[in-house]
Every structure is written in structure tokens, then in C-alpha cells.
Fold this sequence. Notes:
Elements: H1 8-30, H2 41-44, H3 48-64, H4 85-119, H5 132-139, H6 143-147, H7 158-179, H8 182-202, H9 214-231, H10 239-258, H11 262-281, H12 292-305, H13 308-322, H14 330-369
Helix pairs in contact: 1-3, 1-12, 3-7, 3-9, 3-11, 4-7, 4-14, 7-9, 8-9, 10-11, 12-14, 13-14
Amino acid sequence: MNAKQEITDLTICRAVFAAWVFTYHVDLYLNFSAWLGPFADLIRHGYLGVDGFFILSGLILARVHPEVAGKAARMLFPPFELPSFKTMLLFWGKRLARIYPVHLATMLILGALVLAGLAHGWAPRDPGRFDVSSFLQNLFLVQGWGGADQGTWNYPSWSVSTEWAGYLLFPICWYLLSYFIPLVAIQVAIVGFVAMGLIFVVHGDNLNLTFSLGLVRFFPEFLIGICTARVVHLYADFQMLRRGSFILGLVLSIASVAFGVDFAAVLGIWLVLFAFLMQADADCPPMLGQRPLLRRFGILSYSFYMSFAVSELLLSQWFRRENWPPASHGILFAGGMLGITVILAIFLHFAVETPCRRIADRWLAARAVSP
């Protein structure tokens, strides 16, 4: 199939991951997961949706940007010939156009809200999170590179910052994994899973490493995703393997989350993503079907993920002003979070993300063919 064709199953996964992370953050205020009894960890470990995004990021990049691997992927014994600097610049430009406009827009919105609040005597909770130094780190997308120990400004963007670090290194990583035989990619993926297991144990039996520790969590999963795209063609034609990977991964991820075993849950998430990628590589219909509503939400997922910090700031400020504990007005708080986030996400997607990406794609395409 066309490597750049949308994979519906993976788009739906983006919707699930974004909703999972959002629900986890709402639960931090309301603790409604306590109503689920033994299944409370299905919500309390919603931060694992970020791990799904990290694996998915490496997997999708390797699939839709084969040109970054240069000649290595097309020759049996190629000489070392790195992709040209122009190719890498075009790749970085495409990725920056994908993530930065929405990030900048949310930063400007948050800045306007904070300034308006201060003008009316409404200081934000933990005002140190909104200082000038943190603003500059966020502006240059380096807040997740070890400089911030807490969430600052648009706090979910720490993961976008770590992904930007991965994008900068992706051309070299993808070239090397394409240069060597697929067995090397399998070995690298195994090392990545071993690293995640060690991180899980060292970090107190969880993988919720954020902010200054985000890169430690990100890079093994990002490389696992790249390796998966490198070897998928070897296994895609085995229908039983595709179905078995999906069922095993789904059961393993749900059971592991329910018992709080993050490492096994990430392994299960990877198996599901691997099954979906094999299904697409074999030119078979999506395992999950079309699911138009979930697909639309998956397309909207980046703007949605980047929006809920704005709704959290607005609602927490309002509740503090009224002296209302969020847990005592749970329906109002949860409904407000969801409503504001969805409305802002739709606005950002159609007014910022989509037009900026189209403009950048046209401009970069012109640069690609220019002498």
C-alpha cells in the first residue's frame, strides 16, 4: 500500500490515547476512578496514553518518510551515504509545521488569560509555573529536555517537546536502522523493551516520567516504533499473527493497566499497534472498521491534547474564585473541561493546524523541487 496513506486503525488509536490522557487529568481533580473499585487503575494509569503516542510517533514517521533513509533502504550492501542536509531540513520543516502552530496558539491564549487574570487580581495557582523563563523554554520547545521539574504554561506540551527532540534525531536513527538488515532492528527493539523494564523498576514500578525525565521515557519507545516500521513487511502476510497480536495485545494492555503493571501495558499497546500496522501493510481492511466518529476525533486529537490545559486553567480559576472544591461539583467541572477542550480543539484544528500545515506543505514542496 501507499506508505503515506492514512491508517484508520492508528488514527482511532490516537483518539483513544488522547481521551485516556484527558480522563486521567480530570480524575486528578475529581477522583471518580474510586467508583470503579478494582478497575480504578484503568483511569489512574491514563498517562500511558502518552506512551502509546511515543511508539506511534516513531512508527508513523518511519512509514511516511522513507526518503529520510536515503539510499540505504533500497540497496543490499549500500555504502554509508547519509541523507542530504536539504532532505533533513525539509523533514524538520514538515514536522515543525505539524506541531508548532497549535503549540504557539495555545501559548498565546494562555498568556492572554494569565495577563487578564492578573489585571483583575486573579493570580493563577502555582504562579511560578508561568514565569518568563518557563515561557521561553516552552516557546522554543525545550521544556522537556531536562530543564523543567514541573508542568509550566501548556503543561501537556512537555511530551511534544520530547517528540521534537526525537524528530531532530530521526533522520540518523532511521538511516542507520534502514542501512542494516531487519534483524538489527529487532535487536534494537528488544533492547528498547529491556530499557523500559529497567526504567519501570527503578522508577518505583511505574512509567509516569514527565517533564525533566521525559526523554528517558520517550527515546526507547520512539526507537521501538521506528524498528516496528522497519520489520513489519516481514510478518504482514500472516493473518493469524495479525489477529493473535491484536487479541493478545488488547488483553495484556487492559489486564496490565488494571493491575498497575505499566511495563506490561506498554508491551500490550505495542502489540496492538504492530497488529494494526501489519493489517495495513497487507492491504487488508481496518481491523476496527471505519468508525467515522472516532476517526474524526483521532484527526482532531493533537489539537484536543494541546487544549485541555487552557480549560483546566479557566475552570480551576473560576472554582477557586467561587471557593468551590471541584469534587463537590464534579459534573460541572468534568462537563466544563470536556466542553471547553472540544470547542477550543475544533477551533485550533480548523483555524490553525490545518491551514498552517497546508501552507507549509506547499512552501516546502516548492523548496524541494527548486534547483
